[in-house]
Amino acid sequence: MFSWQCMVGLLDVSVPPDFTDETSGDVLVPEGGTVKLTCRARGHPEPHVQWRREDGLDIVIREPTNTKLRVSSYEGEVLQLWKISRTEMGAYMCIATNGVPPTVSKRIMVNVHFHPVIHVPNQLVGAPLGTDVTLECYVEAFPKSINYWVRDTEEMVISSNKYDVQTVSKSAFEVKMSVIVRNLQKEDVGSYRCIAKNSLGEVESNIRLYEIPGPTRAYNGLSPDEEDYNDQLGSAERDQEEEFSNNILERSRSFAPSSSEAPRKGTHSSIRSNHVADGDTSAARSPTNSVREFVIAWIALTFIGCSMAI
User: Fold this and answer.
1) pTM of structure
2) Are 207 and 120 in contact (CB under 8 A)?
């Protein structure tokens, strides 16, 4: 007789992880609301699901009891975010692994929408005339807002020779608005409004630009070229006065009587003494006064010389 042996084998097939259709897609949630993210994965062995933020920031877990916990990763197929804020906006990564390569991941974008908010670092800005001054506003909004500047005259401020208008993105929901006012003049001072609007609302904030005193050169009605010319002319005149004074002094010495001669009776000298006592600086005279005195002395000596000659 034939004998039969029966053997039973177990075939274990490993299947890499894969996501099912139940996995969430990108979501849009109002600020302060609650969002539920689901990540269903299949495979063999049973996949392990983990959540992380793409930007590397912590995930904020809030409980209905208002307790808050920050974690770098979260384990589980369902991630629920309570009372979400704008800072939690961004991409969340669902990662599934079961030891069978490859590991799979899905990127889910969470957008938090809210009406615009404006932060102004300085609402009063002062600058001297003739300088460049920068006005700044920081806007937070999602969806992204339309941003622009308006003066108190209701004139829209746009880039030109006078203004340099810039908008720089700081994050997914924050931008920096700035306007540089070149060569500040009196007509530029006043109120400047930064305005932001999106589908959820509109907001504006005022910045007051005013003039402050600055280091300025005294204005005498002359151009710089004219001032330089006058400075040179004044220097030449001073040189001529000095030369004239020296000539007067020499001629006065030639006409002056010797020390042995005494002035005639009835003749009075009008020469004023230029002697300055030691330590007495109050007797010092300006060059203009000295020239005047030399002229008077020369006339007096000439008169004395003529009288003696007679």
Assistant:
1) 0.62
2) yes
Spell out the per-residue pLDDT of the chain, length 310, in tens: 567 777 777 888 899 999 988 888 999 999 999 999 999 999 999 999 999 999 999 999 988 777 889 999 999 999 999 999 999 999 999 999 999 999 999 999 999 999 999 999 999 999 999 999 999 999 999 999 999 999 999 999 999 999 999 999 999 999 999 999 999 999 999 999 999 999 999 999 999 999 999 875 444 555 555 555 455 545 555 566 566 556 655 655 554 444 444 444 444 433 333 443 344 444 344 545 555 565 566 666 555 554 444 4
As beta bridge partners, residue 96 has 49, 104
- List the one residue out of 260, 254, 256, 287 whose CA is nearest residue 271: 256
Of residues 123, 167, 165, the one with CA closest to residue 144: 167
Domain(s) labelled CATH 2.60.40.10 in the chain stretch across: 15-113, 120-211
What is the token pair recorded at 113? Answer: 């929408």
Q: Residue 158 carries which side chain, given as an amino acid letter?
A: I
Tokens of residue 273, six digits: 């003494």
Residues 6 or more apart whose CB falls under 8 angstroms from that of 277 comprise: 283
For domain 120-211, the CATH class is mainly beta
Q: How far is CA 35 from CA 79, 108, 124, 128, in A?
A: 8, 12, 41, 52
Cβ contact 157:147 at 8 Å: no
Instruction: Give yes or no for a contact between 294 and 249, defined as CB atoms under 8 angstroms apart.
Output: yes
Identify the CATH number of the domain defined by range 15-113. Answer: 2.60.40.10
Element (H, E) at 115: strand 104-119
Q: What is the DSSP code string of 168-214?
A: EE-SSSEEEEEEEE-S--GGG-EEEEEEEEETTEEEEEEEEEEE---
